Amino acid sequence: xxxxxxxxxxxxxxxxxxxxxxxxxxxxxxxxxxxxxxxxxxxxxxxxxxxxxxxxxxxxxxxxxxxxxxxxxxxxxxxxxxxxxxxxxxxxxxxxxxxxxxxxxxxxxxxxxxxxxxxxxxxxxxxxxxxxxxxxxxxxxxxxxxxxxx
Length: 150
Fold this sequence. Notes:
Keywords: Metal-binding, Repeat, Zinc, Zinc-finger. The chain has 150 residues and is an alpha+beta fold.
């Protein structure tokens, strides 16, 4: 049970050199890859903003607001339903209706405002160590979770 099984394209296969066939741990086509996580490209890469992201085009964080908007539009278009969850603390929506798909970076930051911390259980993320979560008892349940885990 390799958690990374078929999560990347096989470089040898792309060059016509892979001899492992069905036994290869790497994907031989996009149809073998798992679906991208819903948090992909939903927040800015702090390393890129500091000028030192080593992941380049393979980074799972956005390197511009335009990139966030492009992926938000793709996610909304492929979503089987629309969800409008009001954030009573900020008056903003957690997921905007299809006509307004510009994500709010301030909303992403407003979810992490007190002293509690949480690390993503999947071990993903070079950004998420020590993220702050809101634990205000008046906040709706959807606001209490880290948006990175959606």
